[in-house]
Write a structure and sequence with these properties.
5-stranded antiparallel beta sheet; mainly beta; 3 domains; single chain; about 35% strand
Length: about 290
C-alpha cells in the first residue's frame, strides 16, 4: 500500500460547495484528515480525500478523478479572488460639463468674461439640478489674483471633489442664429439677435425671458416652455460708486444636454454694454426637462 503520509502533495486544497445532482461521481462521508499524495494507476475507490467546509471529505474513484480535478481547476480559476465592484465612472476637470449618474448635480468648469479686465479665471462649480443653485465650488484661478501660487494644489482639490461621485459627460448642442427671434438694440455695438441650440433631436431657444424646448424633426413638438426671469441681469451699477446702467440683453452662449436624464445646462451671456456699463459675467443655469 502506498504511503500517502510521506508522498509529496501535488494538488492544492480547494474549498467548494458541492450540491449532488442525480448520481454524482463521488460520495460524502466523514473521515480523518490525511495528506494528499500521488495516485498509482489501478487503485480502487476511496483513493484520495480532500477537505471541504464543515469538516466533510469527498472521495472519487480513478475513473472520475480526472473529471473532478478538471472541474475543481475551473472553479478555482473562476473563484480565484473576491469579485470587485466596477470603479465608479468619473470625469476630469478638462472633460466638463457633466451630470451625476443620479441626475441630481451638474459639474461645470466656469470661465467668466470678467467684465472690463478679462483676467484669467477658472472655477469648478457644482449646481443642484432641483434648485438651480451653486452648492459647491473650488476656485482654481481667481480673477482678482490670477498668478496666485498653488494652482496645482487647487486643481487637485477640484479633481478630488469630482472623484466623490460618478458622472457622465453632457452633450454640447450647436448654436445657430434664431431667425424668428426679434432684433434688439441696447447700449453700444450692433443689433443683437438671440440664438438657438440644436442637437440630439432638440431645439432650444431663449427669447428673453422665455425658454422653449422642442423635440423631433423639423421644428418638432414643444416639450418645455417657461419664463426664466432669473436668467436676466438687473439694471444697476456694475461697480461700487459707478453710475446706474440699463439691464443688459440676455441670450444663449452655450447649451449642453443629457438626453437620458433630460438635464439641460445653459450658459447665459449678456450684450449691450458700454465702456462705463460693461456687460456682466455670464451665468450658468440648469433645467430638468422632465420630472
Amino acid at each position: 500500500m502506498a504511503n500517502f503520509a510521506s508522498a509529496p502533495a501535488t494538488n492544492p486544497t480547494i474549498k467548494v460547495q458541492i450540491k449532488p445532482i442525480a448520481t454524482p461521481p463521488f460520495t460524502l462521508h466523514r473521515v480523518p484528515p490525511i495528506e494528499i499524495g500521488n495516485l498509482e494507476e489501478g487503485r480502487s475507490t476511496r483513493e484520495v480525500h480532500r477537505r471541504l467546509d464543515l469538516g466533510y471529505f469527498w472521495s472519487v474513484d480513478r475513473y472520475s478523478l480526472r473529471l473532478v480535478e478538471l472541474v475543481a481547476a475551473l472553479v478555482a480559476a473562476l473563484l480565484g479572488g473576491p469579485a470587485r465592484a466596477p470603479a465608479p465612472r468619473t470625469v476630469r476637470l478638462a472633460q466638463l460639463p457633466a451630470v451625476s449618474d443620479d441626475g441630481k448635480l451638474v459639474a461645470v468648469a466656469m470661465r467668466l468674461a470678467d467684465g472690463a479686465r478679462a483676467n484669467d479665471n477658472l472655477t469648478l462649480g457644482i449646481i443642484d439640478v432641483g434648485t438651480d443653485r451653486l452648492v459647491d465650488k473650488v476656485v482654481i484661478v481667481d480673477a482678482e489674483n490670477p498668478a496666485e501660487p498653488g494652482r496645482a494644489a487647487r486643481e487637485a482639490a477640484a479633481e478630488a471633489l469630482l472623484a466623490k461621485r460618478a458622472w457622465h459627460r453632457l452633450r454640447p448642442l450647436e448654436l445657430r442664429e434664431d431667425p424668428e427671434a426679434p432684433v434688439r438694440q441696447r447700449g453700444v455695438g450692433g443689433p443683437v439677435q438671440a440664438r438657438l441650440a440644436v442637437g440630439a433631436g432638440m431645439r432650444v431657444s431663449y427669447r428673453e425671458p422665455v425658454l422653449t424646448v422642442r423635440q423631433g424633426p423639423g421644428n418638432g413638438r414643444e416639450i418645455f416652455r417657461r419664463a426664466e426671469r432669473r436668467f436676466s441681469a438687473p439694471a444697476g451699477p456694475r461697480c461700487r460708486g459707478c453710475e446706474n446702467c440699463p439691464a443688459p440683453l440676455a441670450s444663449l452662449a452655450a447649451v449642453d444636454l443629457d438626453p437620458t436624464t433630460g438635464v439641460l445646462l445653459l450658459e447665459i451671456g449678456y450684450d449691450g454694454g458700454t465702456d462705463i456699463c460693461w456687460e456682466p459675467d455670464q451665468t450658468f443655469h440648469v433645467v430638468r426637462l422632465r420630472q
